[in-house]
Amino acid sequence: MIDYSPFWKTLKNSTESTYTLIHKHHISSSTIDKLRKNKPLNTTTLNDLCRILNCRIEDICKYVASDNDQKL
């Protein structure tokens, strides 16, 4: 499972807010909701968040093993 808890820490330490992400940077409110609920995001969105927050991917998300992970 991809966990977005690092994103919230990074956002808190930045000059941005969910408001500015939505209104200034045009990140959709549904994307913010996906971050809150640890739902899947595409890599373009992750790239945009890294650019906006001037951070690394590890500052946005981390992988956590889960029994619910899809087995191949």
What does this structure look like?
Residues 17-65 form the HTH cro/C1-type domain. This is Helix-turn-helix domain-containing protein. It contains four helices and two strands. The protein has a two-stranded antiparallel sheet. It is globular and about 40 Å long. The relative contact order is 0.25. By secondary structure, it is mainly alpha-helical. 46% of the residues lie in helices and 6% in strands. The mean pLDDT is 94. The chain has one domain: 434 Repressor (Amino-terminal Domain), CATH 1.10.260.
What's the number of structural domains? 1
According to DSSP, the number of beta strands is: 2
CATH architecture annotation name? Orthogonal Bundle
CATH topology title: 434 Repressor (Amino-terminal Domain)
Features of this protein?
single chain, 72 residues, mainly alpha, 434 Repressor (Amino-terminal Domain), two-stranded antiparallel sheet, 4 helices, 2 strands, globular, Cro/C1-type_HTH, Helix-turn-helix domain-containing protein
Write a brief structural summary.
The protein is mainly α and 72 residues long. 46% of the residues lie in helices and 6% in strands. The chain has helices at 5-12, 18-23, 29-36, 43-53, and strands spanning 2-3, 62-63.
